[in-house]
Design goal:
Blueprint: E1 2-5, H1 14-28, E2 30-33, E3 36-39, E4 42-46, H2 52-58, E5 69-72, H3 78-87, E6 90-94, H4 100-107, E7 112-117, H5 121-134, E8 148-152, H6 163-174, E9 179-180, H7 189-196, H8 206-226
Parallel strand pairs: 1-6, 1-7, 4-5, 4-6, 7-8, 8-9
Antiparallel strand pairs: 2-3
The structure holds adenosine-5'-triphosphate (ATP) and magnesium ion.
Adenosine-5'-triphosphate is lined by residues 10-16, 48, 50, 52, 96, 153-154, 185, 187-188, 191-192, 195.
InterPro entries: CobQ/CobB/MinD/ParA_Nub-bd_dom (IPR002586), DNA_Partitioning_ATPase (IPR050678), P-loop_NTPase (IPR027417)
Domain CobQ/CobB/MinD/ParA nucleotide binding: 3-186
Organism: Hydrogenophaga laconesensis
Length: 230
């Protein structure tokens, strides 16, 4: 399974979603191996010249290895990702800035494409532009349709702020292709604290991670439901 985390806009949470999704699959999903079940084998591919995902793990306690592997592949990553998917149960790809041809190359091999966005007008417009670009390459996908979903991330403000819902509606009203997840992820300090420590969210103290973890898992479950994997 190839899961691409890609968006044109910077700072929307691509690396955070990629790193934590890799951790979720590696620590919480089991796959059948003959009669037994074993933890899923996961590779996180960092295609970003900034190497945020690769550097994330370097911040953690050296005695505590990550539950997944990380590799960097910046130039022309698609063929290698397809190859890796033969050996790993999940290949999660953190997509850095790319031209539309580069995005299209990745879109055609994705089993799931999660595009994080923030709620700002610039973020929403960038999401629409990416969806418009990807809308032209559906026919190149193995299933004839790119499994694209937008995830509204880092929603600011109080619990009763409508900014998340407003962003969902704005996207839904204008998107030429793809789905918008109903579940949003709020701006919560624990995400930044986890990054500082090189940890994934499931390693943070239960009292501080509970809400963030719940929002993340709900969004991920919705994405998999939107595009079930056979
Ligand atoms: N829901 C959230 N709550 C709090 N902080 C968040 C949230 N989502 C992202 N952040 C923070 O925002 C910053 C940018 O996130 P991240 O690096 O994942 O974005 P990105 O899209 O990969 O950026 P880039 O384009 O630079 O690669 C990080 O410090 C991250 O911890
Ligand atoms: Mg990044």
């Amino acid at each position: 399974m190839i899961i691409i985390i890609g968006a044109e806009k910077g700072g929307v949470g691509k690396s955070q979603v990629a790193f934590n999704l890799a951790a979720y699959i590696a620590t919480q999903q089991k796959v059948s191996d003959g009669k037994k079940k074993r933890p899923a084998r996961v590779m996180l591919v960092d295609t970003d010249t900034q190497r945020t995902s690769s550097k994330w793990g370097a911040l953690r306690d050296a005695n505590s290895p990550l539950p997944f592997r990380v590799m960097e592949k910046i130039a022309n990553p698609a063929p290698e990702i397809v190859q890796l998917a033969e050996d790993y149960d999940a290949v999660v790809v953190d997509v850095g800035a790319r031209d539309y041809a580069g995005l299209a190359d990745l879109a055609r091999i994705a089993d799931l494409w999660i595009a994080p966005t923030r709620v700002g007008q610039g973020d929403l417009m960038s999401s629409l532009e990416m969806a418009t670009a990807l809308n032209t390459v559906h026919s190149k996908h193995k299933r004839g349709h790119i499994p694209l979903c937008f995830l509204v991330n880092a929603v600011p403000g109080a619990w009763n702020s409508t900014e998340g819902q407003d962003a969902i509606e704005a996207l839904e009203g204008a998107l030429p292709t793809g789905k918008v997840l109903k579940s949003t992820i709020r701006d919560r300090r624990v995400w930044r604290d986890a990054h500082k420590l090189g940890r994934h969210i499931f390693e943070m103290p239960p009292a501080t991670r509970e809400k963030a973890e719940d929002e993340f898992l709900t969004a991920i479950a919705e994405a998999f439901e939107a595009y079930p994997q056979s």
